[in-house]
Amino acid sequence: MSALSSAPPETPPPALVASPAPPSTTGAATGAASSLTQGSPLVQGSPLVQGSPLVQGEDQDFGLSRIAFALGKGPALLQLRRAQRAESGGDYLAAAATYRAAYRLWPALDSVLSGGVPLFVRAEAAGAGLRCDLHTVVDVGEAQRSRAVLAKGLLTAGDIEAVARCERGVAAAGAENEQNRTHHRKRCVFLNEPPKRALRRSAPEVLDKIQAHGVAACEREGWRRPGGPLRTLEGGIEALSFRVVEHWTYQEGGGLVDLRHNDTDSICTFVAMLSGGGEFEGGVFCTAEAGGENKEHPLAQGDVLCLLSHKYHNVKVVTRGVRRVMVIEMWEGGDSHAGR
Asked: What ranges does the record give for the region Disordered, renumbered to this chain (predicted)?
């Protein structure tokens, strides 16, 4: 059981502790794209049919399928899916040729991702009057004025061991995060990458606890009330998806020293402490506050901190030992974003 409390003057519920106040659609799911054929009504640009594999499949594409068929770009989407499957299968020559074919059919695909969808595709969709936005624009000033909310002891020893087993399994399978090549004295393992979604399959109760904490924090802090930073968010935290689930290991000398770091495109960020007392020194998680303070949030094993993703945050350098945490981001863009 977690011990929850809250900032005065209100009587705390049993698990939330808000840090002191400073002064003052989901994307459409895609599945068996290979079931499309040239000449299919879907490929010709007719509306998506609820229940079709492209709408109801397990993998998420952040609304790209919906946009493609609304704009009559089904054939380009089919080529893109073929290229992605070839790349996943290690046939890089075929993948490169098929990507080029997709880009010839729809040049806007060949642009950087913005919320899981190519930036120029978003521009085309907006020009056609299609809704393709994610709730990514949170006023940074409002985010700094918001409070991080702590759930003490939310994760049990069993939960922490389940996360550790998942991390060991993913690491043993050889799923390497290429970003680790540039990390200094720290290492990240993705625990919810598609298609396996390891933690969701092995310990769904852990993610359910995290999301429930976010729902409670949002309600407690009034983030969705009129004037709140998430006042235009549809459906609330309970309607969001897990963008990334990351297991971080910080060695001595590792930290996140960018004082202006925030999690672009996400809505809520959670930091769960996995290490026990005495396992490390330093490595304190901090948030930027409206008054200019870099506020420290000491976390005990099992504690989970929830904050708005646009609130600046950082991690002080570990001075001794090994710090292990799980970091989770939730957003509107569909479950299990590949990479970060």
From this structure: 1-51
